[in-house]
Write a structure and sequence with these properties.
This protein is mostly helical and 185 residues long. Helix content is 65%, strand content 0%. The protein starts with 5 loop residues before the first helix and ends in a 23-residue tail after the last helix.
Length: 185
């Protein structure tokens, strides 16, 4: 009688790695499917309301304040969020709930919705509360922050306002072009 030697066929490390990958894939897939099904019932994809988009622009300006930039840069930074919300109901729900939370807290602090609060210090107090309050929609903050930081600072028209000359790899790098010629630093 020949006995099959499992230890030669499978290593403990390989078994654990494949098992963990399988569990992670099943959990991610089933959680996403259940979340998508729930979101599809509550909020379907579609464009954000204009007041929600305006609130996102003001919120992004408060996250990344630059007095020398006009709102058009922030509107372009928010555009990827609007596009994603139009395609994905879960993103639209995250943004809608976050905007509603901002508006509710701004009304309690300043008596007006977030985008209508003129005093920057009061809006910043609401943003600080968003980052510190455990009941706040953290997914909203993470989504807006991670998307707009890239889409804001990745606008070539904005780079000269900060003294950034753009990527240098196509021009031979900074070393042979005067890497230490920044006069604003």
């Amino acid at each position: 009688m020949k006995v099959f030697n499992w230890t030669r066929r499978f290593s403990r490390r390989g078994f654990l790695a494949r098992g963990a990958a399988t569990v992670a894939a099943v959990a991610a897939t089933s959680g996403k499917v259940l979340a998508d099904a729930q979101d599809a019932r509550t909020v379907g994809p579609g464009a954000l309301k204009p007041e929600q988009a305006r609130t996102l622009v003001v919120f992004t300006r408060d996250l990344f304040p630059h007095d020398q930039l006009d709102d058009s840069f922030y509107q372009r930074a928010v555009k990827p969020l609007e596009d994603e919300a139009a395609q994905d109901g879960s993103t639209k729900q995250i943004l809608a709930l976050g905007v509603a939370w901002l508006d509710a807290k701004a009304v309690s602090v300043a008596g007006r919705p977030y985008a209508q609060v003129g005093e920057e210090s009061k809006r910043v107090a609401v943003v600080t509360r968003l980052k510190q309050d455990p009941s706040a929609p953290r997914a909203f903050f993470d989504k807006v922050y991670s998307t707009t930081i890239v889409s804001l600072y990745n606008q070539p028209e904005l780079w000269p306002k900060f003294g950034y000359e753009g990527p240098s790899s196509a021009k031979g790098g900074y070393l042979s072009r005067g890497f230490n010629d920044l006069n604003w630093l």
